[in-house]
Write a structure and sequence with these properties.
Six copies of one chain form a homohexamer. The first copy, chain A, has 318 residues and is an all-beta fold. In chain A, 0% of the residues lie in helices and 42% in strands. In chain A, the strands form four sheets. The first copy, chain A, has an eight-stranded antiparallel sheet, with no helix packed on it. The first copy, chain A, has a seven-stranded mixed sheet with strand order 5-18-17-8-13-10-11, with no helix packed on it. Chains A, B, C, D, E, F: Pathway: Amino-acid degradation; L-phenylalanine degradation; acetoacetate and fumarate from L-phenylalanine: step 4/6. Chains A, B, C, D, E, F: It comes from Sinocyclocheilus anshuiensis.
Chain lengths: 318, 318, 318, 318, 318, 318
Amino acid sequence: MAGLKYMSGFGNEFASEDPRCPGSLPEGQNNPQVCPYGLYAEQLSGSAFTCPRSTNKRSWLYRILPSVRHKPFTPMSCGDLTENWNDVEPDPNQLRWKPFNIPKSSEIKVDFISGLHTVCGAGDSKSRNGITIHMYTCNTSMTDKCFQNADGDFLIVPQQGEILITTEFGKMMVEPNEICVIQQGMRFSVDVFGETRGYILEVFGAHFELPDLGPIGANGLANPRDFQTPVAWYEDRTVATGYTVVNKYQGKLFSCQQDFSPFNVVAWHGNYTPYKYNLENFMVINCVAFDHADPSIFTVLTAKSTRPGRSALTFLKP
Amino acid sequence: MAGLKYMSGFGNEFASEDPRCPGSLPEGQNNPQVCPYGLYAEQLSGSAFTCPRSTNKRSWLYRILPSVRHKPFTPMSCGDLTENWNDVEPDPNQLRWKPFNIPKSSEIKVDFISGLHTVCGAGDSKSRNGITIHMYTCNTSMTDKCFQNADGDFLIVPQQGEILITTEFGKMMVEPNEICVIQQGMRFSVDVFGETRGYILEVFGAHFELPDLGPIGANGLANPRDFQTPVAWYEDRTVATGYTVVNKYQGKLFSCQQDFSPFNVVAWHGNYTPYKYNLENFMVINCVAFDHADPSIFTVLTAKSTRPGRSALTFLKP
Amino acid sequence: MAGLKYMSGFGNEFASEDPRCPGSLPEGQNNPQVCPYGLYAEQLSGSAFTCPRSTNKRSWLYRILPSVRHKPFTPMSCGDLTENWNDVEPDPNQLRWKPFNIPKSSEIKVDFISGLHTVCGAGDSKSRNGITIHMYTCNTSMTDKCFQNADGDFLIVPQQGEILITTEFGKMMVEPNEICVIQQGMRFSVDVFGETRGYILEVFGAHFELPDLGPIGANGLANPRDFQTPVAWYEDRTVATGYTVVNKYQGKLFSCQQDFSPFNVVAWHGNYTPYKYNLENFMVINCVAFDHADPSIFTVLTAKSTRPGRSALTFLKP
Amino acid sequence: MAGLKYMSGFGNEFASEDPRCPGSLPEGQNNPQVCPYGLYAEQLSGSAFTCPRSTNKRSWLYRILPSVRHKPFTPMSCGDLTENWNDVEPDPNQLRWKPFNIPKSSEIKVDFISGLHTVCGAGDSKSRNGITIHMYTCNTSMTDKCFQNADGDFLIVPQQGEILITTEFGKMMVEPNEICVIQQGMRFSVDVFGETRGYILEVFGAHFELPDLGPIGANGLANPRDFQTPVAWYEDRTVATGYTVVNKYQGKLFSCQQDFSPFNVVAWHGNYTPYKYNLENFMVINCVAFDHADPSIFTVLTAKSTRPGRSALTFLKP
Amino acid sequence: MAGLKYMSGFGNEFASEDPRCPGSLPEGQNNPQVCPYGLYAEQLSGSAFTCPRSTNKRSWLYRILPSVRHKPFTPMSCGDLTENWNDVEPDPNQLRWKPFNIPKSSEIKVDFISGLHTVCGAGDSKSRNGITIHMYTCNTSMTDKCFQNADGDFLIVPQQGEILITTEFGKMMVEPNEICVIQQGMRFSVDVFGETRGYILEVFGAHFELPDLGPIGANGLANPRDFQTPVAWYEDRTVATGYTVVNKYQGKLFSCQQDFSPFNVVAWHGNYTPYKYNLENFMVINCVAFDHADPSIFTVLTAKSTRPGRSALTFLKP
Amino acid sequence: MAGLKYMSGFGNEFASEDPRCPGSLPEGQNNPQVCPYGLYAEQLSGSAFTCPRSTNKRSWLYRILPSVRHKPFTPMSCGDLTENWNDVEPDPNQLRWKPFNIPKSSEIKVDFISGLHTVCGAGDSKSRNGITIHMYTCNTSMTDKCFQNADGDFLIVPQQGEILITTEFGKMMVEPNEICVIQQGMRFSVDVFGETRGYILEVFGAHFELPDLGPIGANGLANPRDFQTPVAWYEDRTVATGYTVVNKYQGKLFSCQQDFSPFNVVAWHGNYTPYKYNLENFMVINCVAFDHADPSIFTVLTAKSTRPGRSALTFLKP
């Protein structure tokens, strides 16, 4: 997949159409009565409609079939996923996890979804306040199956093995020392190329942002230009045997069936997208004479709480 | 009740006295050592004392007997009311309720309180954060009984049958296509005139407000002039058989007895009152050339969360 | 004029119609194609259209003839009015003015306008930032003449002699130990009843507000209920000899002629109005054990600067 | 110039390089010790370094010769440009300008700079607070000459004749019913194709922004996708006879000479750029049942004052 | 302990060193590679690193042995401490506690920790939102034992018996009519001198602050000068039998052992410290003419919620 | 003057008394009817009374004679001081000043006041908005003379020669590579020890603050601990020949006579004080891998404008 293309910038108002369908992106309006190629226009909201510009997030997707054309969701096993912190006794000792073992594909086939393990968390998705940390270990690509997190955003940190993520917005290849963010409600499917492991930071009720830099100035830490968003890519594929959509909703898993691939978005525009970032581009700043700065100086992305200066979740450059 | 009078304006600093007791409203101070007619002065707070002007809410009530002159509260059955969301499994499918059946008064007498059913919700009243949606179905007026919600505000939306609401501030007749708001701590009694149904939006920890209009300008959507607040009305009535006050507190019901009607407020002033609104007065705004605006353009009232632009609960014009 | 009526409340959304024309206030909308009695609807804006609710000010006036029906403005003598501070050398010594002499009506007729003297100021009206302090001394009522300040708000403090102020919103009688505020753009005429003197605080670019009270709580200092706004009053009067409108614009005076009284507003509604306040109602608060509080504890009204906690102009109870 | 390309989005973090120099944009850092092609890296700041993300503006330009390589500035005639409002008496009458006459090129050659006339204004550039409105009338393209406004931003509204604007960021063709914005410090040259006229809104100390939409929601008025920013274009051109840079600084004009074209930026990235907008894309919103909204509903771009909801300057769709 | 010294001021950037070790506080930097006297430098954070100045709290402690040199924590009995409010039924009646009985030391030895009883609360420490009210009753000093609250801040109000509190920052003697605050993460030990009782306000996720005074001005209520912070004091004491550190974490108690006293901080500096206040210094303010102010006028300290003007917890002068 | 003592901390609530008068600082209140030693209590305000805690500045001074006991101010020559920027033509070229020559004391005696030269500025003191930059060159100490700036704060940067500054709060010795700040309204006298030169940054309407550090965290740049405030020092000295107070007011100089030294403050407390800082303590932070940060990374002190992130004046470490 060396040929994957990306658009640069953080939080840009992007626009992209698959080159196989020139003119598929409507011009001058969002929701024409008849879209080019007979596509269906859908708005995917990433914020309350009434948020101010700086936090107002939405994208318009133009797709071959509407996303609601699926059978009802039914509960499925949550495996090692949980959001119920009361089941665990608190422990004030400093903890460190040794790397989770990755199952051998010769023994058992595990894909990204079945390989999710919740490590810890606080708060809950229902109250739109809190975070969760998961690990993923897998050895098999997801086949005719996608995942959608209705609870919050996933910041994915591969530790071993690159992952190819197909989303409604296009494809991203993410390798160790890169991170990617799949925001709430975006459907995606993960292909792997061997034994694969990483961790996931999930945040409810707030999106990841670049920190304000204060006296550091207009450049520094993770620069917005170095974030990469995929370009539109679609498949017009019928899946007679059924395509499975797995939905995490209020901390639990549900699945439904449909008879076509959800990655049928021919064109899209908007500022609510998945994106990735290479940690090598981080512009490191620190004390140059004596002492050293607090670890916040390594902030890559942060999700704000409602107290000024206090984050709900911050990802630091390792 | 065609003769009911109202004062116009949203969030005004109102003043009203029952015309049967001229001069009952003290002038120039709130809490004289001896009030006119020997009334008792009580402040009903709708906010922290220290809130800034724009959110500071309180009214002064001048009443025949103090509101605390009642026997202790004891728990009572909560019927179909609940605030315990963990008892219900989440369901990611889109849901729609068919209209609740209204019991026939020939079969069973049901008043506004016993006819309350909780439909859904999130958060809880204890943490002062969250919402609940209830239905009410009833066929009988409340007799020698009033309700008081210690948990939050009720926005009541009649669907079938008008309701006559007697409050400590006066009387309101509310018909379908009208809404009314009874704020936290205000006692009220509901009279009905047949089979009656509606729904109730309850919000904890925030009051309903008119939305800021941004570029829409100084007029539009629900205009403040069209909100109506009752005028003072009292009854000086002893209830030998006992008057029942039902209190919803932390999601549960309690009742106590007293030997007089609580609607004994002869005069009052303040900016914390019940009010009603006729949805026909809504000044509809939308796109006039192409596309259409997001549903927030139909916002009648909204209760703010602590994230800018994100509401805890918004009532849209149906 | 003992019979003058007022509506109580500060910043309320008021509505009023002259009882001689019942139904003159349009219901349910602001700007009907045909108003009752053939009146003209005009919006008087007291803020940018896009201000948030708490600072958004406007009123709708329904009048017999449109306010623009006048001849062009021409410059007139400014007398002792000025906004040019560079003409005066600064003086760091503490200053106190002895009372200005009031001219005898037997010697010279002076009305409110010709009796204006600027005492001091800072900033200017053009930049919408600054204040001015004027004195007025007069002995004669304004006849077929009104004043309109396009630059800012007048807070008028009578020292000697009551003044009867006729405005587009109705009439107010203001006596010593009372104050009144005529906001930007409101036309008014002043009648006096002998030798009359007072001072005027003028502020540009901000309106007077009640201060937030902080720990003082929900009541105290000037209570909103004690502010009084006039009720609608109109005259349908032709002035063949010409009615003069004097306009202060960018610190200078201009006048124009029209052939009818501008006080022809039959009904109005809105939250942008003139108002008055009796200083006896001020709820004085201070230290009760030792020391004494700073003078800000006597704040009646304040006009905010854009620095938190710093006012552009504050009027303290004398 | 039909072939001009633009990038879409408002306030995006853009990146562009002239296709004649592939790889000219440095990757992964802004200021390498040796830039590709031996280019000079320069940061153009559009805000204080310490502004928060939402108002922090800067671009990095990679150019053939440094922009400071010019001779000193010397004063030149300001023609009809001024910033001295005290020279004009105020006039409270409503004013309207009839269209300025455009000089015939057969009689006199007038380019964009010499054809500037100040119409009115307030505040001044020194205090970083205020606005100016200019007209331009011209019949001749600027030759070996560019303009740079050190005082504020220009929002240009062509009335007659399209204009081709060459900037350090690339080229834009702007026709009547389009607008463009050239921000503070950006050098540009204007080519015309006949008798040409338009007006210019200039604002000091604030940039133009899209308004927050409030209840209108995530789409409406001027949509961010419809703003267009030029792509990188350069010329490596020596001008033996001297290239003139005209600088407006504190309301006055200065010029200096250099021996090369300033449009030598081979690649650039950043969020501080010129842009244009076609007013046909404006998504008109208004009342659909009765009354009409305030004119703010036609806001295309607005420059904020420091009072919430009050703009320094707003451009409304005509 | 009459000789105990304190530093005055609220929230000051303090610096203190035990006079037995002159020069123990490093100058000009916080974290030298070798500290004076071979001390260990530790930063104790009282806020997120990224909080703005007004809420950024941290201190640097220079100690003989690192604080992490202890054995692992193990759970211990929580006695009457709890944070589980769901176990108690709500009760809307007004409640008042009669004084808790203090056990006789002749019958049972009870120290500060074992004498803690939770009275009521709301929210929880995990979500960093909520409060708890505890009582303490004890008759015996803590021996070779200290307490550390990882959940929030303790505001301690002695009712009977003075308490001598040894902290990592020094010693404080607190008597009835005084209060003290021990903030999150600060280890302390309590000595008593007889039968001792008091109550404790605990707040999660916010620190106590002095209220903004609004119109009261620059002086009044609890003045910052009257708050007292201890001076550095250390003991270099080995405890062969084991020193016990008790940790409250997520509402439960844990203990660990170490072989030295934790009060080994020779010098420290910073703005995150314990402090005490004598309620006699409270500058009482109230109405002096009529009515009386709301109880907020007696605010000593308040912990803010995220709603303007609404506190999470306020301590009023009794 | 090696023995000068200072208190450490920025913006602390300090308290100090001259050791020659133990107990001179009143305890438990600010304004006793009779102060210790018969001193006069005076409050020196550094902000509006109503500013929130974080910007509320004032000190209480206890002095031998009241500060108002002086004869009236009269204008004096302003020398090279000015605030009139319109007298100078703007110049867009980059400017650099060569060092001002210091007059020889053998030729002419010049003290700090007579050696002041204004270099440039913007805004003005009357509107409380703007800055000025002055140089000082002098060779003689001020004798029986002090200076008081009623317009704004002085940040003094010695370039050659240390200066001994006597203030109402005590004495400070400031050497090259140190800076000091004398805030608005504080009287001071300057002693020099040879040919002396430096520059002065003056800001109107805002005080200098430490910048918020954002991701830099809780430590870095100028640390608050390294700022030094003088300790109380007084002289009880009659000056029969007259002591001169020079006052800069609205950009002009005035002087008055009194018959005693103004440095008669025996004790004081408060958070509004002069202070100094040694630039060697600046904790330098910058990029450590590639590129370099914007100059704001060297911010020592900044005075905020009313636009977020934009300063009125920033002093960078040279």
